[in-house]
Specification:
The structure holds two protein chains of two kinds. Chain A has seven helices and eight strands, in the order E-E-E-H-E-H-H-E-H-E-H-E-H-E-H. Chain A is of the alpha/beta class. In chain B, helix 1 packs antiparallel against helix 6, helix 2 runs parallel beside helix 6 and helix 4 packs across helix 6. The chains are: A alpha/beta, B alpha+beta.
C-alpha cells in the first residue's frame, strides 16, 4: 500500500522510511516509530492503518544509523547478541534528527502527530519533550521509564502500557502518573507489545483495539 | 484463633506466590509478598515444633531459632533483614553483558537495546552485603526449606 522512500536528516545522514498516503484529503500526518525490529511487517501495517484512517503516515528507520537497512521478522533470540552489540552505538540524539526529518517530510499536509511502540513509545515521549515540529504524541509501552520521566512534555501527550509488561515495572508506570498527573496514562490488562499482531503470545486484540481507538480520538482532537 | 493454613498449606502458598512473582519479574510488590510469607514461615514452624528440639536446632525460643536459620541460610538472613526493615527492595537498571544477550527474554531484549544495554531488575539491598537479585534470594530461601 505504501512506498519505501529515503529521507535525509539535518546532519546529512540518508536513511530508509516507509510512507503511505490516504485516499482523499488528509486529516493530518502521523509519524509511526518502530519497535526494535526496524520497518518490519508490523510497523508497515501500522503506517498503512493510519492511512486508512485518513492520515499521511510515515515510519523512519531509526536503527539505520546502527545498521543501514536493518529490519527483522524474527522475534526469537537467534540474533539477540549481534543486535545487542550493534546497539551499543545507538544514540537518542541522532535518532531525534531522524524523527525531525520524518516530521518535515509530511508537514506539508498539516499538523503532525507521533506514535510508536516499545522503542517507539519511548521515542514518542522524548519527541513530545523536544517538540520537533510535532503537535501531539501517543506512545505505547516505552521501556526505560527512568530515562524519560524527567522530560516534561511540551505538547499533548498520552501513553499506553500493559499491567503485565515484563520489560516495564508497573511501579514505574505509577511513578509516571505521579510525576505527570495531568497526562492520560492508560494501563491495560496486557503484556509488552500487546498491539503487535505478529506476536500472538503477546498480542491482546481487546487492549489493542481500545488503545488504538484512544489514539485516533486523541489525534482527531489535536491534529485537526 | 486457629491458623487458617497448615504449615504445608503455608509453604504451598509461598511456592505459588513465588511462581507468580517469577512470572512478573519486575514487580517489587510480588517479590515482597513472597519475602514476607517466607519471613513468617519459621515462626509457625517453631510454634508447631517447639517441643521437638530436634526439629528446631535444639533452641529454646523463636528468636534463637530465627538467628540459627539466618546463620544456616544467608538467603533467609536477607529475608529477615527485609522483614525487619533493615533491607530494601529497589527496581533498578542492570547492565547486560553482550555475552548474556542470547539468554534474555524478548521483552528485556527489546527494552535493553535503547536503554544503554541495561534491563530493569528487582534488587535486594542488605547492609554490609553486595546488592543481589531479589528473585535469586527468594529462590535460594525456598530451596533451603525444601532441602
Amino acid at each position: 500500500m505504501g512506498d519505501r522512500i529515503k529521507l535525509t536528516s539535518s546532519d546529512g545522514f540518508t536513511f530508509n522510511a516507509y510512507r503511505t498516503t490516504p485516499a482523499g484529503k488528509p486529516k493530518g500526518a502521523v509519524v509511526v516509530i518502530q519497535e526494535v525490529w526496524g520497518l518490519n511487517n508490523f510497523v508497515r501495517a501500522e503506517v498503512d492503518r493510519y492511512a486508512t484512517e485518513g492520515y499521511v503516515a510515515i515510519a523512519p528507520a531509526l536503527f539505520d544509523r546502527v545498521e543501514l537497512g536493518y529490519e527483522s521478522q524474527d522475534y526469537g533470540p537467534t540474533g539477540f547478541a549481534h543486535i545487542g552489540e550493534l546497539m551499543q552505538n545507538f544514540s537518542h540524539d541522532t535518532a531525534r534528527l531522524d524523527v525531525e526529518a520524518a516530521v518535515k517530510a509530511v508537514a506539508d499536509v498539516g499538523k503532525v502527530g507521533i506514535t510508536g511502540y516499545c522503542f517507539g513509545g519511548a521515542t514518542a515521549w522524548r519527541a513530545a519533550h523536544f517538540g520537533l515540529g510535532l503537535a501531539a504524541a501517543s506512545g505505547y509501552y516505552g521501556g526505560g521509564v527512568p530515562s524519560y520521566i524527567g522530560l516534561a512534555p511540551t505538547m499533548p501527550l498520552e501513553m499506553h502500557y500493559g499491567d503485565n509488561d515484563k520489560g516495564i515495572p508497573l511501579e514505574q508506570i505509577n511513578e509516571l502518573r505521579a510525576a505527570h498527573p495531568d497526562l492520560p496514562i492508560y494501563v491495560y490488562p496486557a503484556g509488552h507489545g500487546f498491539c503487535n499482531f505478529e506476536r500472538p503470545e503477546n498480542y491482546n486484540a481487546e487492549a489493542a483495539k481500545l488503545a488504538n481507538q484512544r489514539t485516533l480520538a486523541f489525534f482527531a482532537k489535536h491534529l485537526a | 484463633m486457629p491458623d487458617p493454613l497448615s504449615l504445608e498449606q503455608h509453604f504451598a502458598l509461598i511456592e505459588a506466590e513465588h511462581h507468580h512473582s517469577l512470572a512478573a519479574p519486575l514487580s517489587a510488590r510480588r517479590a515482597l509478598l513472597v519475602a514476607i510469607l517466607l519471613d513468617h514461615y519459621p515462626d509457625r514452624v517453631f510454634a508447631a515444633h517447639r517441643h521437638q528440639p530436634d526439629q528446631v536446632f535444639g533452641v529454646e525460643d523463636m528468636l534463637a531459632y530465627r538467628a540459627e536459620l539466618g546463620r544456616r541460610s544467608p538467603a533467609m538472613a536477607a529475608i529477615f533483614a527485609l522483614g525487619s526493615g533493615n533491607a530494601t527492595l529497589r527496581i533498578e537498571a542492570v547492565k547486560v553483558p553482550i555475552a548474556d544477550y542470547s539468554s534474555l527474554g524478548v521483552e528485556d531484549f527489546m527494552v535493553s537495546l535503547y536503554n544503554g544495554n541495561s534491563v530493569q531488575r528487582v534488587m535486594l539491598y542488605t547492609p554490609g552485603h553486595e546488592p543481589r537479585l531479589a528473585h535469586d534470594v527468594l529462590s535460594e530461601a525456598i530451596a533451603f526449606w525444601r532441602a
